[in-house]
Design brief:
alpha/beta, Rossmann fold, 2 domains, 6-stranded parallel β-sheet, 22 helices, 4Fe4S_Fe_S_CS, electron transport
Length: about 475
Amino acid sequence: MTTFLGMPATAPRGVGNLRGDETFPAAAHHALADDQLRRNLRHATTTIRGKSGRVIAELPDWQELRSAGSALKAFVMANLDSLLEQLEARVTAAGGVVHWAADANEANAIVLDLVRRTGSERVIKVKSMATQEIGLNEALEAGGIQPIETDLAELIVQLGNDKPSHILVPAIHRNRAEIREIFLKSMPGVDPDLTDDPPVLAAAARKYLRETFLSTTVAVSGANFGIAETGTLAVVESEGNGRMCLTLPDTLITVMGIEKVVPSWPDLEVFLQLLPRASTGERMNPYTTMWTGVTPGDGPQNFHLVLLDNGRSAVLADPAGRAALHCIRCSACLNVCPVYERTGGHAYGSVYPGPIGAVLSPQLTGVADNASLPYASSLCGACFDACPVKIDIPSMLVHLRNKVSHPAAERAAMRAAAYTMDHPKLYARAQRAAKLARIAGRRGRGLPPPFSGWTASRDLPEVPQQTFRDWWASR
């Protein structure tokens, strides 16, 4: 059997969670009107930023670690074909079965078929961005299989018939009073006298999930890393639910994006220092679970690895955009982004919100399907400074903006500006006319209609009393 990455096709429409029903500006407008959402986001992101900053400051070689992580990811992208084939060979030799999925439809069909073969009507799930991306839960439900999320935040989102709004903390938009109401309404067997005290809420979820763990024979997970030299898969998490899913069931199915491969064990050392500090503000993850194939009598006795493309080859094909595949899903860029903090994750319309979502989602789907996302940024650069693998998100945003089809009026305005700047006399007259902006519009810093739409959310630079040409001529 031969393997290949596939042609650079984008993720298919009509399946998965990469495209929203609204443009970002429209969805953000609704989010900005939700005061409770904004309070929840501000509290959560401020707390995570503070914790992360403190533990990062403890490492004198943090910048060197970032550079190492960036270099390792660049090496992986340059050698992805051979590393994936090596990973496949090692997983197979260890008793696992590897499946290649070109897109979300193929991946969902593979997983659904594998679950049906076991005879189980229910699966337990470890938190996984890849399975959310492809809409696996919806596909399983349509096939008569009940998926149960075991991560507490993912469980809250699932029981609330909601969608995740953060890469690391999917229920960041919910407060504890809202969570109590969700549990009372949707969690089987919950105490009707349940309070909104966090330990009480966690205990209720633990009771429900423990019974589920012990009675479900199939688990579905994602993977934070796949080590090519040994075929080892790794999942890092904070609650222990992942450890239960990865060890108790008889069958384990892992869906992994092809970019998650790393060459060797020493390379993993770099990422296990970067990821917890940048994501949860911890020195190390409370639970780091690794497994290699099948071990007779210990853990799952059937292991399947689904390697997912779903647009990743299209991202890889763009030299200016492929660094988006370096992302290790830490969410550091979300926690420092002023746009995300005010709008939340749902406004992005994709399972990947925030700055990384603004560059990754348009490339996975094709820019035309997410044309507004590259503009969901102030280009302040905070995301670049926070990224543990140095993804230059601001430059990538500008690159993607240049790929967007601009409105006819905007193209006409740019052509007129270019023509004016190319003709010195006309440009000089335009400079003199620009002085009128000092008395036009909002406090002299806006533009009159129809250009007022542009200055409604930004001020024009103040026009100087004297142009350089006038200054030069007077001297």
